[in-house]
Design goal:
Elements: E1 2-5, H1 29-42, E2 46-50, H2 63-80, E3 84-88, H3 92-101, E4 105-108, H4 117-122, E5 127-131, H5 149-166, E6 174-177, H6 186-194, E7 207-208, H7 214-220, H8 228-240, E8 245-246, H9 251-266
Parallel strand pairs: 1-2, 2-3, 3-4, 4-5, 5-6, 7-8
Helix pairs in contact: 1-2, 2-3, 8-9
Length: 267
């Protein structure tokens, strides 16, 4: 899963997609399409398009702001490329509009906790990734607490899966994500990674996103654009532990890790 941040304030690369003739951020769909084409060539099967930064300390934006950013991107990719499009949002209005525009998957950091989200998506055929987050992006890294990080995240995801299934979702539509970096300390993140295999007992595809995150920077002591090697190291461990989908800024390097993991499994 390649990442397309249609935002000016993502922690990594969103501002690169700004229109050159605009002082205020306005998404350039042609730049996003070019990026998606490159990811497809490098081996991505999914592109995850998000219009709201969810980095630690990020502020919320309106549904309309999200739509203005993501819809031109989704429409351009759908019209030109044969690739699965995921919408990274927690707002039902954005999810449904994105699906209408061609998205086939919803990637929700809030695990469909919006009061209308479960009912809205139950009426669609879209796949849904349920992620764990303690708190909200604006404050999640300032105030969090766990007695047992692995079991608490597992139980949260298990309950959200049950909510979806009880509301008519087929299990074949669901994925789970433990939410690395979302309301967790450095130690919490690495405990989750160390015990990632626990989540395979949910018997659902497991999505892992560690790409360039502070959990990597905190260990290798490098800026965001210098964290590729560390991200691949963590990704390789995740693959051995049973991860099925890797969300990444660096598709080519990640595909190499996936191929090596596959060779090990096939040996």
């Amino acid at each position: 899963m390649g990442i397309i941040n249609a935002t000016p304030d993502s922690f990594s690369d969103g501002s690169q997609l700004n229109r050159e003739d605009s002082e205020n951020f306005r998404i350039d769909a042609s730049k996003a399409l070019f990026k998606a084409e490159a990811m497809l060539r490098e081996g991505a099967c999914i592109v995850d398009v998000g219009g709201e930064s969810t980095r630690p300390g990020a502020s919320k934006i309106s549904a309309q702001q999200q739509l203005d950013r993501v819809l031109p991107v989704i429409e351009a990719i759908r019209a030109n490329l044969d690739i699965c499009i995921s919408i990274d949002s927690s707002l039902p209005q954005v999810m449904l509009a994105a699906i209408d525009a061609g998205a086939e998957m919803v990637n929700d950091i809030r695990a469909l906790s919006h009061p209308e989200a479960v009912a809205a998506l139950a009426a669609t055929n879209a796949a849904v990734c349920l992620m764990h987050m303690q708190g909200e992006p604006g404050t999640m890294q300032k105030d969090f607490s766990y007695q047992n990080i692995v079991e608490e995240v597992f139980q949260f995801l298990e309950k959200r899966v049950q909510v979806c299934v009880s509301n008519g979702f087929g299990r074949e539509r669901l994925l789970v994500d433990p939410g690395f970096g979302f309301g967790k300390s450095l130690g919490h993140n690495y405990r989750l990674l160390k015990e990632l295999k626990r989540f395979t007992s949910l018997e659902l595809p497991l999505l892992v996103g560690v790409s360039r995150k502070s959990m990597i920077g905190g260990v290798v002591d490098r800026p965001v654009d210098g964290r590729v090697a560390g991200s691949i190291a963590a990704t390789s461990y995740a693959l051995l532990a049973g991860a099925n989908v890797i969300r990444t800024h660096d598709v080519a390097a990640t595909i190499d890790a996936i191929r090596v993991n596959s060779a090990i499994n096939d040996a």
